[in-house]
Write a structure and sequence with these properties.
Oligomer: homodimer
Largest sheet of chain A: 6 strands, parallel
Largest interface: A-B, 39 and 39 residues
Order of helices and strands of chain A: EEEHEHHHEHEHEHEH
Helix content of chain A: 40-55%
Chain lengths: 181, 181
């Protein structure tokens, strides 16, 4: 999966780059590790933000954080901090020699979206490599929905409130697509 | 639901009080709001910690945070910062005049735990009020498992790694118990 910090929308629908949230590095690395993902990419074009994320990664991976908390070190092994989706594909192609199927996620209903069941079936069928895109801020920019091979239906709660944190949405989506029942 | 900061275990199994994480206030308020919960309790016996959490709540509820982000204000309405479970029950009894069924959650397998399906059925049957307990640190202390009316089975990922953040576990559990499919 990839957590996108650009291009995403702000509260007014403008395309912006968001700042990295420290806990997104931790929570989503642990989530990726729990559900057996191959990689967790944090994507931002802002060099200073990548440096910050890299320092946090290195602390838990190579610094004393790794010996203090080996489970955290284990999870952080999946994290890659990259500039854009081109770097993601380079990393994946180098390792897997396969085309990558992009899946966009978001809180809004969009026409042609795949249901969780349909997506789960496709994953279980095998032979394809999926990259799930999660948007920070107010969600992925339209260009990523246009570019994606599939759009996944939104997670619905009990009513109309659809403002889950991206960390919570990602957890629920991983469970729905990959969780054991 | 209640997020417990005492009594919980530390990495060595000792019973401790943990510090409040700012993002737990935000993420779990939004989660509670999404899944139609009645309240989200943050439980800590440490007065300074309650003051801190209260200041954050007030900022998003009554301060300029509320006008900047009305969706966040909406979610924070469910948050109550309390000292212990006695205060939780007082608040619930005052509002609902019913006994509360305590449900403990954790990452370890425990004998007699209810499956998600069993718990979902009980909730849908109605007539009962459930309080789900989530542990910070290395999980709820044994005394809370002893005290609970039910223990919920753990969330399982793809393998043996069972170190989900409490925020992610709570999101998955709410979705499994209350989510629309």
């Amino acid at each position: 999966m990839a957590l996108i910090h650009y291009p995403v929308c702000d509260r007014n629908g403008r395309v912006v780059a968001t700042a990295i949230t420290n806990l997104d590095l931790h929570d989503m690395s642990r989530l990726a590790r729990t559900f057996g993902l191959y990689r967790y990419y944090v994507v931002t074009p802002v060099a200073e933000q990548r440096d910050l994320a890299e320092r946090i990664r290195a602390h838990w991976q190579e610094g004393w954080g790794g010996s203090y908390n080996p489970d955290r070190k284990d999870a952080f092994q999946l994290l890659r901090v990259v500039s854009d989706l081109v770097e993601v594909i380079e990393d994946l192609d180098g390792c897997q020699e396969k085309r990558v199927t992009f899946v966009a996620t978001g809180a809004k209903e969009r026409s042609g979206a795949l249901s969780f069941e349909q997506m789960r079936d496709r994953i279980q069928r095998g032979g394809e490599h999926f990259l799930l895109l999660f948007g920070t801020g107010w969600g992925l920019a339209d260009e990523l929905f246009d570019r994606a091979d599939y759009i996944l239906e939104p997670v619905k709660g009990a009513g109309d409130y659809n403002h889950l944190p991206v960390r919570a949405a990602a957890a629920i989506i991983m469970d729905r697509l990959l969780g054991r029942r």
